[in-house]
Queue: 2 jobs
Job 1
Amino acid sequence: EAQVTQNPRYLITVTGKKLTVTCSQNMNHEYMSWYRQDPGLGLRQIYYSMNVEVTDKGDVPEGYKVSRKEKRNFPLILESPSPNQTSLYFCASRPLQAGSHGYTFGSGTRLTVV
Amino acid sequence: SQQGEEDPQALSIQEGENATMNCSYKTSINNLQWYRQNSGRGLVHLILIRSNEREKHSGRLRVTLDTSKKSSSLLITASRAADTASYFCAPGQNFVFGPGTRLSVLP
């Protein structure tokens, strides 16, 4: 089954403790992206990647890092999480030319930073 | 990158009624997509309409695109309780999502 897999689904952590949210897709998509979703603000793009070793900032990159060492994986790293990073996070992937398929989204990671 | 603005923010209807939600955007686009999100879950791609298309159908979904008015509409006919979700439009290739329309379909 074609899918984007995010882990973990839920995460509660303390301020300053480094964490990684993993994302993996099995569709051989070039383009991968991370979003955060907060009430009333829609989805805001954090980082995206157009291919292996190619990453770029989205609209809200501060406090986050990403890497794209392999085509299928695009982990999101919070080096020193803060409470304002409490949010619902989504990873998504698509072909580089979107065509008629659009994004495939993961199930989300609900992160709470206390 | 531009964001679509969905309207209304919230919509509540009875099962069997039609639901219409709108999307406006600011700059010219090659295509526009609609997505659905069930509570707390990932978005699901519903339909893509290209700039040279005025209307597109998929099952109970009907999408229109008016490039002169820079607007699109999503119509869900004969709605069901399972259609309760948030709906988002994404104009253009940059996939920027607005706050969405929260649709509640009451049994």
Job 2
Amino acid sequence: DVQMTQSPSTLSASVGDRVTITCRASQSIRTWLAWYQQKPGKAPKLLIYKASTLESGVPSTFSGSGSGTEFTLTISSLQPDDFATYYCHQYHVYPGTFGQGTKVEIK
Amino acid sequence: QVQLQESGPRLVEPSETLSLICSVSGGSITSYYWSWIRQSPGKGLEWIGYTNYLGSTNHNPSLKSRVTISVDTSKNQFSLKLSSVTAADTAVYYCARDRLSGWSTFDSWGQGTLVTVSS
């Protein structure tokens, strides 16, 4: 299986901060990567797919980049609603694998 | 806006079969792929398997042959059966829609249901 490693595991930030989360794959996954946001007690929500394509309805403060083995999710200006846990997910190598998550908490 | 809702027993005894149903509303199950995903503190998020409306299925090889996924287009529902469960199968189980391949881009999710395996 492809291992997906996210860093950091926890990130403390303030409203208005620029936040970057990294996801590394143990082998090339080209751009077959998605990002999800999950709030406590809720299902994950698709934010970005194909590494950089913003899902409909997702604020433009979110962006994704990368290819091969290294990817980033950037929130350009952190909003109160953005405090959550974020997961990357590769879907290049069957059966797909998720990262362990990055929790963005209030500083 | 499609909505998904999981239903089924919340407590399953070890060695028994876990059974869940996902009811789809606001859209037809005859498009897209329909998946099951679970989340546990120990293993994180794990894709279980998918079906399409024709009943074509696939599942995560890590679950070996314990998984059965089926679809009922007349009810706009699909279901999951996981046999020979152990405590390691305790998790929040989600149903989700995938618009690409069944294991890739999950754009709508149910709220999830916690299933506990215990005697």
